[in-house]
Design a protein that fits this description.
alpha+beta; two-stranded antiparallel sheet; globular
Length: 154
């Protein structure tokens, strides 16, 4: 059974974490320090309509509940948003990966975290391993399903 998005808590944590539009990785990291027992998750989100393709995204999971500090900026109804996880990190692992990324690549943004090589490719972008490819394929299928009756206008 898919995990359920808690719309109310997502709005509350978005406000508390001072979430910004188009910054899902930073928003989820900021929120992860505010929500006890949260797991930071990276993957893809899809919903009907534009952009008509999966969006690389990050959110939190607390048990069977999704708390998405970027949810308000998606401007969607909760039951129209679908999450496809590719990687989960505890707060301790996330902090360690960020510190390592800052040390190894100080000129680059440390988020998102893709784990250890080898990486798979998505179009012309490098992503995490096979879990990302699997999550992306599922997200693309759902996106096509959601938008089948709603063709893109050109």
């Amino acid at each position: 059974m898919p995990k359920t998005l808690d719309e109310v808590q997502s709005h509350e944590i978005a406000k508390a974490a001072k979430s910004r539009a188009k910054a899902p990785f930073d928003n989820a990291y900021a929120a992860s320090v505010l929500v006890s027992d949260a797991v930071y998750v990276q993957g893809f989100v899809v919903f009907p309509g534009a952009p008509y393709q999966p969006i690389e995204h990050a959110w939190l999971e607390v048990g069977e509940t999704i708390v998405d500090p970027s949810f308000p900026s998606l401007k969607q109804q909760a039951d129209n948003v679908y999450y496809f996880p590719a990687q989960e990190l505890t707060l301790a692992r996330l902090k360690g990966a960020i510190e390592e990324a800052k040390e190894d690549y100080p000129e680059d943004d440390p988020l998102p975290i893709y784990g250890k090589p080898p990486y798979d490719y998505y179009g012309d972008r490098m992503l995490g391993g096979s879990a990302y490819t699997t999550a992306l394929a599922a997200a693309e299928t759902k996106c096509r399903e959601l938008n089948a009756a709603k063709p893109k206008s050109t």
